[in-house]
Write a structure and sequence with these properties.
The protein has 323 residues and is an alpha+beta fold. 30% of the residues lie in helices and 23% in strands. The chain is built from nine helices and 14 strands. The strands form two sheets. A nine-stranded mixed β-sheet has the order 1-13-12-2-6-7-3-4-5. Strand 3 and strand 4 (108-115) form a beta hairpin. Bound molecules: N-hydroxy-L-asparagine (SD4). N-hydroxy-L-asparagine binds at residues 82, 178, 183-185, 203, 205-206, 215-217, 236-239.
């Protein structure tokens, strides 16, 4: 595995000069895609999940299957305290989960405020494939999951509960901090041999959030967006920022207008920083296009992404707007 630190702030200024060539919407001639093979791109340091998703693609499984396989690994890991089992609870001490998936056919499934189900990404996939809806929330989402054969489980681990009790003792102040020190929400984008794209995202949200809070991660266009004609993007960090900007939809639209995934991520981060004074809060974006080019950018330093193709696995720090 290769670790690389990138300090490419310059890219932010260079990309201002990047031409915005427009791709015609009614283009009908199919483009020949370069042979780059299977690819998996995830937010943060998630090498095992990234490997598992790639292996699933190698075995000939669908993109959705690869995403559920990769993301479930992180949901099942109690040491990852931003996702699934072991996630940090809300201000009432309940672990509530958000997830979504969007496939190459444009089908989407999402669950928000889901309690006691370990694998919200699996439930999101079930919503996508077995319900007429896009989003199921709260008790309804849980009932749906149970009807589909999933088990109810306690998700609060001793470690997360201890942190919660300490937070209550310290005065229960909510912090929007969502960076490497305390966050590893998984957003995953997969590309198959034909250049088809799909993605998924799963989180327990911000630690000690207000009960009922839903973040960006389960919202199509905010935490995740896939357009199989163009590219795909997923987000992490402070969901309230991503929701206000529909950042992943924006990244895909920038790619539609001719930007590379890297330029598109940078431009979407720049849009956020222009509109709001978010100097202390983190957002990280990753993107991939039909050709298998990838991109990643963040507001603050410390946002890593993991990338795997059939040759190697790399974990890199993304370029950031602020030092
Ligand atoms: C949220 N975007 O609920 C998520 C948090 C996150 O790494 O990405 N954490 O706001």
């Amino acid at each position: 595995m290769k670790y690389q630190r990138r300090s490419l702030l310059k890219l932010f200024s260079l990309s201002i000069l990047a031409p915005l060539s427009s791709t015609s919407c009614d283009e009908t001639t199919p483009k020949k895609l370069p042979k780059v093979g299977l690819q998996v791109l995830t937010t943060w340091r998630h090498p095992i999940a990234t490997n598992k998703a790639l292996k699933s693609l190698i075995r000939g499984k669908s993109l959705s299957n690869a995403i559920v396989t990769g993301i479930s690994h992180v949901e099942n890991d109690p040491e990852d305290q931003s996702v699934g089992f072991g996630g940090r609870p809300d201000a009432d001490g309940n672990v509530t989960l958000d997830a979504c998936i969007m496939d190459e056919a444009g089908k989407c499934g999402s669950v928000t405020y889901l309690k006691n189900i370990k694998n919200p990404i699996e439930v999101a996939r079930l919503v996508k494939d077995h319900s007429p809806h896009v989003i199921l929330s709260g008790d309804g989402a849980q009932q749906f999951a149970v009807r589909m054969g999933m088990e109810k489980e306690e998700l609060l681990t001793e470690k997360s509960n201890n942190e919660y009790q300490a937070w209550k003792k310290e005065g229960s102040t909510f912090s929007t901090k969502a960076n490497i020190e305390n966050h590893d929400t998984i957003g995953m984008l997969c590309r198959d041999h034909e250049g088809n794209l799909a993605g998924g995202c799963s989180t327990s949200g911000l630690a000690f959030k207000t009960p009922g809070r839903v973040g960006d991660s389960p919202i199509i266009g905010a935490g995740l967006y896939v357009d199989n004609e163009i590219g795909a993007s997923t987000a992490t960090g402070l969901g309230e920022i991503v929701l206000k900007n529909l950042s992943t939809f924006l990244v895909v639209e920038f790619m539609r207008n001719g930007k590379t995934p890297q330029e598109a991520c940078i431009e979407a981060i720049r849009r956020i920083t222009k509109k709001y004074d978010f100097k202390n809060d983190q957002v990280g974006l990753i993107a991939i296009n039909k050709n298998g080019e990838i991109g990643a950018a963040s507001i603050l330093p410390g946002f890593f992404y993991s990338f795997r193709d059939q040759n190697e696995l790399v974990v890199n720090e993304a370029v950031s707007y602020y030092n």
